[in-house]
Each structure stands twice: as C-alpha cells, then as structure tokens.
Amino acid sequence: MAGNLCNASPAADPVPAMIAANAVARVNGPSGERDCPVQDIPVAPGHNSLAKGEFITSILLPACPVNASDAYQRFIPHTEMDIAVVSAGVSLALDKDRICTEAQVAIGAVVATALKVDDAAACLIGTKLDMDPLDVRRKNAARKGTKAQPRNWAPLMTTCTPSSPIPVRWVTTISPMAAA
Ligand SMILES: Cc1cc2nc3c(=O)[nH]c(=O)nc-3n(C[C@H](O)[C@H](O)[C@H](O)COP(=O)(O)OP(=O)(O)OC[C@H]3O[C@@H](n4cnc5c(N)ncnc54)[C@H](O)[C@@H]3O)c2cc1C
Description:
Blueprint: H1 2-7, H2 14-20, E1 24-29, E2 32-37, E3 42-44, E4 47-48, E5 55-60, E6 68-75, E7 86-94, E8 100-108, E9 115-116, H3 118-124, H4 131-143, H5 154-159, E10 171-172
Antiparallel strand pairs: 1-2, 1-5, 3-4, 6-7, 6-10, 7-8, 8-9
The structure holds flavin-adenine dinucleotide.
Flavin-adenine dinucleotide (FAD) binds next to helix 1 and strand 5.
C-alpha cells in the first residue's frame, strides 16, 4: 500500500479507499516521526509530499464505529487489467434505524490526486441510502461542480448504492484495525 500511495498515480486503487477510511500514514525520516493524512501524501501525478529521506512505516486505520463499513468500487472500460477511469471509496455508518449518520467519500482517477468529496458525503447523511432522494440530491450537488469538486463524481453516487444497476467490477472492504 505504501509503494502504491507514494507512486501518486491518480488512478491508484487503494488510495480513495484509504482516504474515505480516514487513514493516516506514519512517516519516519531524518526529522523524526510524523503522522500525515493519506490524502496529503500524493500532491501531483507521480509526485508525493515526502521530504528527502522520509519513508512510510505504517498505514493507520481508525476503528470503524458500530454499524459502519467501507467499500471501494472502480469503473474500468475493458478488462480487469485496465486501470480505473473513475473510482470511489466510501465509508458509512448507520444508526439503529439504518439512517446514515456518518459518511466519507473519496474519488480517484478523475483529478490529479484522489480527492475527498464532502458534498457527496453530505448527500448520504440523513438518508437510508435509497435511490430517489439520493438521485435528486446528487444532481443538485453535481450542478454545483467546481474544478476542485468536479461534476463527474456524481455518477459514482449511483455505483455506491446497494441497488445500483451498474455491475460491480471490483470491490474491497477494509477491516477496522490499528495499523496495517
Ligand atoms: C502492469 C501493472 C498494472 C497495474 N495496475 C494497477 C491498478 O490497476 N491499480 C493500482 O492501484 N495499481 C496498479 N499498478 C501499480 C502496482 O500495483 C503497485 O502499487 C505500484 O507499481 C507500486 O509498486 P510497489 O507497491 O511494489 O511499490 P514500489 O515499486 O516498491 O515503490 C513505488 C514507489 O514508492 C516508493 N516507496 C515504496 N515504499 C515506500 C515507503 N514505505 N515509503 C516511502 N516511499 C516508498 C518507492 O521508492 C517508489 O518510488 C499496476 C502496476 C503494473 C506494473
């Protein structure tokens, strides 16, 4: 995971999932040890924020709350050997009535570095992840797309819901743990 993260490919698969899970990279180097949010490691395609002599020793994943889970999906145009053309990592927590209380969404492959999309997460909070309200809310949010929060994250909301009509090509989950 550290090599994949440090390569800083916009299409790296683990990175949006790690960002959505609030993963932190533990970095050691000549100046000692520091913790850096995973989203701050890639800074541009092929470039990372590590200083000379620094290396990642751990990827820290906070424990999930109760009734929470993470998932990652990517869209690839042809075969399993393709890299993602768009991807999303999502972390959700539900209450006892199955209403979403916490959400983190990160997207990959569509901008220079994987990006946390708070507007997308806000669309999910307060819903039961059912399609109709989500559809309306994601369209409203998509209309507000900016360079930093691009419009093309919106179709990902469809792929990330349980009733998605889009086939799931590749899914992984991250188990809660202190460090991996
Ligand atoms: C044909 C092919 C297809 C691929 N398809 C995909 C794909 O679909 N999705 C995907 O996500 N990836 C894909 N990859 C990328 C691949 O899976 C690796 O993640 C990537 O090549 C990095 O390799 P590595 O993990 O062995 O790291 P390395 O090659 O060992 O390292 C990569 C870079 O990170 C640095 N580095 C490594 N470890 C650390 C560390 N602990 N601290 C600081 N710097 C470090 C190295 O110095 C190097 O610059 C593909 C690669 C190939 C060759």
